[in-house]
Amino acid sequence: MIVLGILGDIGSGKTFVARQFKCPTFSADTEVNKIYRKSKTCYKKIKKKLPQYVKSYPINKIELSRAILANKYNLKKIVHIVHPLVRKKMINFLKKNKKKKLVVLDIPLLIENNLKKKNYIMIFVDSKKTEINKRLKKRKNYNRKIIDNFRKLQKKTSYKKKLSTYTIKNDFKLSTVKKRVNFIKNRILNERNSTWYRNNRIVSKRWS
Predict the structure, then answer these.
(1) Taking a C-beta distance cutoff of 8 angstroms, is the pair 12, 170 a contact?
(2) C-alpha–C-alpha distance, residues 154 and 162, integer Å
(3) Under 8 Å CB-to-CB from 175, ≥6 apart: which residues?
(4) Which of 1, 20, 27, 116 would you label with 92, given CA atoms 20 to 30 Å apart?
(5) In CATH, which of 1.10.150.290, 3.40.50.300, 3.40.50.1000, 3.30.420.10 is domain 1-24+100-208?
(6) Cα–chain-centroid distance for residue 9?
């Protein structure tokens, strides 16, 4: 099983790119939403840490937003509680799909939370800042301060790009992104059984 990790800035289109690989994908954002809706354990832990803000179950994202806006350290408290649950779900996902040729991890804090393993192939999604900001502003309940707080938790995009084996330029056009993804996907699968690949001597490839 080849594991691909999708890296990039907030709003760069990581999920959009991940979907184009057409293989089992673990979406941390989707799993977090499920945890907020279904995990009473998570609710009790967050309520204990943030009793002033968290009042209702299922967990209300507006309440969490208020907590983050009130104090930037509240975001770290939330992440500290939610991260182990996401990690557990990721491990179960990898076990379930261990016989698949290719799987994708769409996890915003993949690097920061030490979820990356040495044999994972990192793919950086490179998008224009103007396009990122335009799309972020269209999000429901968009708040610049919250976005900035999330960015502070993450490594710099320059570091993520350097860490990646491949870079995909995302212009948010389905036809071009599909072509770029298929090029990289085919290259990875073709190299999978070669001695060169098995020895992990992967040379950085850029597709733009």
Answers:
(1) yes
(2) 15
(3) none
(4) 20
(5) 3.40.50.300
(6) 10
Distance between alpha carbon 38 and the CA centroid of its chain, in Å? 21
The answer on pLDDT for 200 being more than 90 is no
How far is residue 141's CA from residue 123's CA, in Å, rounded to a whole number?
A: 29
* Least confident window among 10-24, 148-162, 193-207: 193-207
- pTM confidence score: 0.90
Span 112-158, pLDDT tens digits:
999 999 999 999 999 999 999 999 999 988 999 999 999 999 999 99
Q: Which of 182, 184, 166 is nearest to 22 (CA)?
A: 182
Q: What Å distances lie between residue 11 and 3, 61, 117, 133, 134, CA to CA?
A: 22, 18, 24, 7, 9
User: What is the pLDDT averaged over residues 66-86?
Assistant: 96
Cis ω for the linkage preceding 58 (within 30 of 0)? yes
